[in-house]
Amino acid sequence: MSDFKTFENEQPPMQRQAQAPQQEAGFCFRLFVRIVAVITGLMGIVLGLVSAISIHGLCIVAGIYIMLLGFLVILLEAPFCCQFLEITDAVSKWSERRPAWQKAIFYLILPIVPFFFCHGVSQIFACLGIMVTGVLYGLVFIGKKGDAVKSAHLAQQQQQQMQQTPSGADAQPQDPFGKSALIP
């Protein structure tokens, strides 16, 4: 009988889920974001080179900026590609400590600058590619917060349902899954 009492006092699964600590994005998704970042960084370097081969001075400046931005993305996201630099370890550790929202802002704002210099197809594709990385980091950030909001909403609904159910002799004991218990 004492086992039933502890079973009866146990929290419903929705409340246990709402109280669970928030977890980071999964390893596979973080790996996917880094792979996309490396691809867009390489694409930025190549398309920046294409843009730098131009007659117009401002398009050359925009191409060099995009190449540097692509190299910076690779340095931040895949430091093993730049092991020949001494600063790689320090930059990698600094980048790892940044939250997802800061990386998202970084990757969304910096690619806007080349549009002020030159409006070429290569700039558009290179900058949009780097912005995709920023959008993915934004999804990582929003995904964590979205789960917390969803869990809090479900816990609130569960609490409202518990307040609406009658208490006392008419109430039937329920198991953690919300089903009526077989024990009277």
N-to-C span: 12 Å
Total number of helical segments? 7
Low-confidence stretches: 1-9, 13-23
Overall pLDDT, averaged? 76
Give me the strand/helix succession: HHHHHHH
Which percent range describes the beta-strand content? under 5%
Going by helix content, strand content and strand pairing, the class is mainly alpha
Shape label: elongated
Per DSSP E runs of 2 or more residues, the count of β-strands stands at 0
Radius of gyration: 26 Å
Biggest sheet record: none
Q: Which bin fits the share of residues in helices?
A: 55-70%
Please give a handful of descriptors for the protein shown.
0% strand; 68% helix; mainly alpha; 7 helices; 184 residues; single chain; disordered N terminus
Annotate the secondary structure layout.
Elements: H1 2-9, H2 13-19, H3 27-52, H4 57-77, H5 88-97, H6 100-109, H7 121-164
Helix pairs in contact: 2-7, 3-4, 3-7, 4-7, 6-7
Quick synopsis:
The chain has helices at residues 2-9, 13-19, 27-52, 57-77, 88-97, 100-109, 121-164.
Explained architecture:
- The protein is an all-alpha fold and 184 residues long.
- Helices cover 68% and strands 0% of the residues.
- The chain has helices at residues 2-9, 13-19, 27-52, 57-77, 88-97, 100-109, 121-164.
- Helix 6 runs antiparallel to helix 7.
- It is elongated and about 75 Å long.
- The chain starts with a helix and ends in a 20-residue tail after the last helix.
